[in-house]
Amino acid sequence: MRPHTKEERILTLQKEEILSAYNFRHACKEFDPDRKITDEDFAFLLETARLSPSSYGFEPWKIAVLQDPVIREKLRPYSWGAQKQLPTASHFVLFLARTRDALMPGSEHIRHMVEDVQKLPPEAVENKKRVYRKFLESDFELLDTDRAVWDWAGKQAYIALGNMMTAAALIGIDSCPIEGFEHEPVERILREEGIADGEQLRLVCMVGFGFRVREPRPKTRQSIEEIVTWR
């Protein structure tokens, strides 16, 4: 067997570092309130979300960084899964997904994405909208209910969420994704605070970032043979 090259040894080390980060990451239930993420590091985490992929490249999400302790406290009575994270997280993030109205082919958001962001020529714009409409109407049949498109948009937001959490683990920052909240009262507060109008954007999930106060229990997962099938 030939010896590993320097490049191969570096690649192996990188793989080990990535797997180490995945083992480091856990759903942190309580953060150290005295430790704060630097502006530079949090900007890095936000950039990993911004660069995340989305269906058709439409980025059907918005991220609200909730640093106001008063608003955080307002959410606590209705966020049973974030009782310790809301007051202790260095940074607390809300992932919002666009609604059906906001994601229809003729919506302002879709126009903005294809014309202003993707800068497609007029013919390509019309072709992309045509393909996208078919996707909504028949390929995935998302127009049967008002919630279906929003749920689909939420799946896209979870890609960005996962990338943020992995990036955080790679640089030694803890995180905790949270779905433990009462949707209606939480969204009422977000409307009152001007964070999400409930018409164009609705809350999908929360995530806290910071530094652990205690070590977690060992990670438990199914074996690779239980979750992967080869054919």
Write up this protein.
It is a single chain. The chain is an alpha+beta fold and 231 residues long. It is 49% helix and 12% strand. The protein contains ten helices and four strands, in the order ααβααβααααβαβα. It has a four-stranded antiparallel β-sheet with strand order 1-2-4-3. The two termini are 30 Å apart.
Walk me through the topology:
Blueprint lengths: L5 H19 L14 H12 L10 E5 L3 H7 L9 H4 L2 E8 L1 H4 L4 H10 L4 H18 L6 H25 L3 E5 L4 H10 L8 E10 L13 H4 L4
Antiparallel strand pairs: 1-2, 2-4, 3-4
Helix pairs in contact: 2-8
| 3D shape | globular
Number of helices: 10
Tell me the fraction of residues in β-strands, as a range: 5-15%
Instruction: State Rg.
Output: 20 Å
The counted number of beta strands is: 4
How would a crystallographer describe the biggest sheet? Answer: 4 strands, antiparallel
Share of helical residues: 40-55%
